[in-house]
Amino acid sequence: MNTGSFDRSVKPVWHSIWFRLLAAVSFGAAAALALAPWYLWPLMVLGYGGLLWLLHGTGRTTAAFFHGWAFGIGYFLVGLHWVGHAFMVDAARFGWLMPFALFALAAGLGLFPALAAVCTQRLSTPGIGRLLAFTLFWGLSEWLRGSVLTGFPWLLSGHVWAASDFSLQAAAYLGSSGLGLLAVLAAAAPALMLIANTNGSSKVAGARMRGFAASAIALALVVLVLALSQARLQAAADSYHPEIRLRLVQAGIPQADKWRPELRDRHLALYLELSLSADGAGQPADFSHLIWPETATPFFLATDQRRGGAIARALPPGSLLITGSPRRGESTERPLKLYNSIFSLDRNGVTTAIYDKSHLVPFGEYLPFRAVMAHLGLDKLAHGAVDFSPGSGPRLVSLAGLPSFRPLICYEIIFPREIETQGEPYNLVTRPEWLLNLTNDAWFGSNFGPRQHLAIARVRAVELGLPVVRVANTGISAVIDPHGRITSQLPLAVAGVIDSRLPAALPETLYARFGDGIFALLCLFLAGLSILARFYRIITVRHNN
Questions:
Q1: Is residue 55 one of the residues assigned to a domain?
Q2: Of 51, 126, 318, 434, which is the most exposed, with the fewest CB atoms less than 10 Å away?
């Protein structure tokens, strides 16, 4: 028996398609753990380097698709598992849907990494050219994920830079999309040193040396960006609006209790008690502006004169309340419209401003394709039988005693391209002086979701050079300065208040001025290098032959 021949016929285990798909899922899970809240950023090397290694080992488009898709499923199952908590708030109606919805969400979003993998495999050659193409197409797939359909720019690779205050400063120059390119390039580059797909020891050594050089260059770029970030943070000076005294109220009401009609007055009494409670020094409450979270009033504030009057009478002289509340549309509108809104209310009970949420959460605030979905027994997760309607779009709000601000309800803050508003006169883009984010993260428990949401708010602050005031029903409420530093916060699942001044905005950042134009330039640069690498390889192969 020729045992040598038999041994050569046995393929290594890593050639098995099932092993490779399981590895892809594991690599995706590892990459997700590099982001908030754990920030195990070395796992990015395992995650993205592992996927690049898998793509080097396949010459088929179909295999590349499934490798990328499996990676995406692992990535989003781990990073977005907290979405399942929303289905358990009303477990009797929606609990059975949780496993199906989580897998459908991960599988759907996983198509974006699959697209990046296919483009990488089809449009690049092995070696440095594939590394460059992989970085480019991963970045473009994330940009698309944040743009197509309703968009969902959550779990972006660039958010890994929020692991510390000093590393996050680079977002002011490159934005989260630009930083994502650098993060993926540096994470995937070491994989080139493990890939030997040429014959002959000298060629293998040469390929590994090029991999080492690519890793060294990528690491040098990371160090350079970190140095610039550290210099920016060291030059930071704290500046506040001294005449503005904010009080943020976090009532800590569980989502399962929030909309119970018999508890409305109890919830309102809790908000008023916290609003008027003594400060940390035991002194009477002293604020110019009181802020409650998203849908803090589980009733229609605009039409509930009894409760609205009680709120107005409780406000100290000269103060103003900003709160989230549902709002009915005009009585003449058919069908009836319902809005998720922000109201400002003065001591006379006069509503001084209203903002209606414009970017709604599909399946949360409205049911897409309702005519079809309703026949399948599905409904939106939010309370009530009527879908929320989108507002008229982004806008600036100016209130007495406050600089102009951009109101953002819940996950509206995750869309950097929607922060800009159209102002008057001349229909020019008007820059706010701060961002107000009212949210209700009670839907998502006390795990990854609220912490990831807070991290994204910090990214927005640095990108735009604007402070962020974040008020959440169950946490995490926080005041974030324009360098992304949390100056005050309340932890999850507690009731309390934050008394704070309002940080002042910084001059317009590079990202605020040019937006995704910087990301586009970086993509063009990567595309050019990838094309050059492809031509160089073709010429080298022809010369050797």
A1: yes
A2: 318
**Can you give the C-alpha Rg of the chain in angstroms?**
26
Q: Are residues 429 and 318 in the same domain?
A: yes
Is 294 noted as a catalytic residue in this protein?
yes
Rounded distance, CA 130 to CA 530, Å? 7
106-117 pLDDT per residue, tens: 999 999 999 999
> 119 catalytic, yes or no?
no
Which of the residues 410, 412, 463, 523 is marked catalytic? Answer: 410
142, 258, 357, 463: the catalytic one is 357
Parent domain of 225: 12-235+516-544
The answer to the question of residue 321 being in a domain is yes
Say whether 357 is catalytic: yes
pLDDT for res 198:
42
Sheet strand arrangement including 496-503: 351-356, 338-346, 320-328, 289-291, 240-250, 496-503
Residue with tokens 């390119």, as numbered in its chain: 181
State the pTM of this model: 0.92
- Residue 336's CB is within 10 A of a number of other CB atoms, namely 11
Residues of the chain with pLDDT under 70: 1-14, 196-206, 331-334, 369-385, 420-429, 537-545
The answer to the question of residue 3 being in a domain is no
